[in-house]
Amino acid sequence: MYRIDLNSDLGESFGRYTLGLDDQIIPLVSSVNVACGMHAGDPVVMRKTVALAAGAQVAIGAHPGYPDLQGFGRRDMNLSPDEAYAYTVYQVGALQGFCEAQGVGLAHVKPHGQFYNRAAVDRALADAIAQAVHDVNPELILVGLANSQLIAAGQALGMTCAQEFFADRNYTDAGQLVPRTQPDAMVASEDVAIERVIRAVKDGAVLSNTGKLIELHADTLCVHGDSPSALAFVQKIRAALEAEGIAILPVGA
């Protein structure tokens, strides 16, 4: 049986500013990654997002990022491994507190934005993040880009790791995400994105932006929930997966 976890990065509103369609996206996915107040989100939003996810009975994950609210965590920061470790423990611990207060478990951790992208290729950073997650709770699932250094770092610690595929992002020949600063970073066509998802799940492969075949194993699929068309896109992807007989389940379920 084919299966995939359908995840979305949520809880990204801040104060009076609302970002995303969290209440509408959450019932359509099987897991959520909740911003922890560094790149987005705040304590009130974190609490509300955990409650929404708990009510929908989807898996809840922490989404720690660079301490960069103004840049939404998408600017690189030259954190030392010690700093990266501390920021990860701080953010994961904060969300774990909100989960415990509402009687639900924290299931996984997925770094955000440039923290995630840098950890995909920087083994020292990857080791620091993986060690931080492991030290908070070695049973937490570590989510990272498929074939990345973050996955290797988690596996070296004996952790359960979930290799991630992005429905709406293009890949380089090296298997990395095309930077958002480049014009071809995003997959513009929803139909093409869905075809790529089905191929990744069933065939374990994706074509790069130059047409190179990249082999990968996809445990979890990310769909972004902060664009105007996000809701319709998630609905279409979920329907396509179900039509292909692909089960939508959290990692480890």
What does this structure look like?
With 253 residues, the chain is an alpha/beta fold. The protein contains eight helices and ten strands. A seven-stranded parallel β-barrel has the order 1-2-3-4-5-6-9, surrounded by five helices. It has a two-stranded antiparallel ribbon with strand order 7-8. Strand 3, helix 3 and strand 4 form a beta-alpha-beta unit. Helix 4 packs across helix 5 (123-136) and helix 5 packs across helix 6.
Keyword list:
single chain, 253 residues, alpha/beta, 7-stranded parallel β-barrel, two-stranded antiparallel ribbon, 8 helices, 39% helix, globular
Quick overview:
The chain has 253 residues and is α/β, with parallel strands linked by helices. It is 39% helix and 17% strand. The protein is globular, with a radius of gyration of 17 Å.
Helix-strand blueprint:
Layout: E1 3-10, H1 22-25, E2 31-35, H2 43-56, E3 59-63, H3 81-101, E4 108-109, H4 113-121, H5 123-136, E5 141-145, H6 149-156, E6 161-166, H7 190-203, E7 205-207, E8 213-215, E9 220-222, H8 230-243, E10 247-248
Parallel strand pairs: 1-2, 1-9, 1-10, 2-3, 3-4, 4-5, 5-6, 6-9
Antiparallel strand pairs: 7-8
Helix pairs in contact: 3-5, 4-5, 5-6, 7-8
Helix segment tally:
8
**Main β-sheet, spatial strand arrangement:** 1-2-3-4-5-6-9
Q: List low-confidence stretches.
A: none
Instruction: Please count the beta strands (DSSP E, at least 2 residues each).
Output: 10
Helical/strand content category: alpha/beta
How helical, in percent, are the residues?
Answer: 25-40%
Rg of Cα set: 17 Å
Quaternary state reads: single chain
Describe the sheet with the most strands.
Answer: 7 strands, parallel, barrel
Task: Give the helices and strands as they follow along the chain.
Answer: EHEHEHEHHEHEHEEEHE
Distance between the termini: 14 Å
Overall mean pLDDT stands at 95
Shape: globular
Strand content: 15-25%
